[in-house]
From TrEMBL:
Organism whose genome encodes this protein: Stomoxys calcitrans (Stable fly)
Family annotation (Pfam families): F-box-like (PF12937)
InterPro entries, per the entry: F-box-like_dom_sf, F-box_dom, LRR_dom_sf
UniProt-listed PANTHER family: F-BOX ONLY PROTEIN 33
Protein name: F-box domain-containing protein
Any one GO biological process: positive regulation of protein ubiquitination
The F-box domain, residue ranges: 6-52
Top-level taxon: Eukaryota
Listed SMART domains: FBOX (SM00256)
Amino acid sequence: MNRRTSAKWGELPSLVLGQIYEYLEPHDRLNASRSCKHWRSVIFQKRFFVNFKLKLNIDNDRQCKFFRHTLYNLTKELIIIFDFINVFHIEKIRRILYRIARCDNLQGLRFQTNNVGLMPPGDISEEGLVDIEQLFVEPLKVFLNRKKTSCIILDLGAIEALTYYGLDFLKSLSRPQDLKQLTLASIKYDPSHYPMFPMENSLLQKCSSLQVLSLDYDTLNEELLHVLKFLPLKKFLICVHGLDRHHAGISERAWAEFSANFTNLELIVTLVYAFEAVEVLQLRILRQNMPITHLRVLFCDYMNVEALDWISLNNSATLKSIQWIDSAYKHSDNNTMDLFLRTGQDPLVMMSWRCKNLEEIVIHGYVLDPHNIVGISRLRGRTLKRLEVSMIDSTPNEASMDSFIEEINTLLGQKWEPFNLNNMHPALGYMPVADDVRDEYVFDLIRRDISN
């Protein structure tokens, strides 16, 4: 193509070029827009960005500028990735939130940060709270209060400091009846001591289209559970941290009334650094009428064998997935840290037998007997979509282990082998890790449970 012909193509009227773009698939349209500056400018129209989702990294100044000037009114769902303790990041977010408060396309907003537990609540000075309110909370309330466009997704990113303003955010929603996903559960800075997050039941009652909800267990009570049973929930995630002695718990009757209203609800119970709650899990939290489908026990430094047996007996009709995860390096002196069960009933084997819908077993930080892993594979077979373990009793010789792995491969109908801890996330390994590394792992897992 000579220069004169190229110039003519570059001079096509925007209206004509836009009509040509309509005939192209999204991938081809994007490639065509790279031809020249003029062709690129034409692509930035709402009709070409239907359901467009964007991950905005606040560290990337060029991306932030491009978003504020070009993409802010085209994005349907925005994920903001930032550092909560970086004042420059918060200032950028303040400008972005005020910017998107004037757009009529954005319906979903998610936050993502490594610093989910900002600081101990008692250490937040009055001045610090004012800064958070002025730089973050106030512009977010302006965004939620838009009159033309409803907010359908609000994900506070498990950030403890933001969940304290959960009531303010709910009150700011201009059209709460359009909200479909709300995540208010948090990761605590200190899982044993933290303020309680209050909830006005009437506010959630107004969210008549709510399908996905996450809450801290402390927020939940029987009155709130009664309100939730009238919502079209498809996924309900409950995060357990500490156990307040004044929390009355949820009765069998309340859970029975709740579960009677749902047939395909995913109820995900997640314990996060719940060092006390994990020991009384089957006594204080689990209930026979609780339609629990997924259990996550994350870095609680204790394997509660009785709880495993209890849930496989009482929730066998609903349980689909269990993940019990600790690091190989542990901070506890508890003698029950290693799960060696060569005799008697292995709770995971019994769970595999009793729970007919069980599809996923993930165990890290505990040593398992290879005979029992074979037993699990025989009972679940190809219905077990995921079997993930990293620590296996090495007592059998290498030839025996190869035989075990070969049999498990055949039973599961897929290639299987134990995970090598050296190749896994550092939060699971043999070396001590910083809290933010572990928080990142927990946050990623919770986010997957919410979004999947």
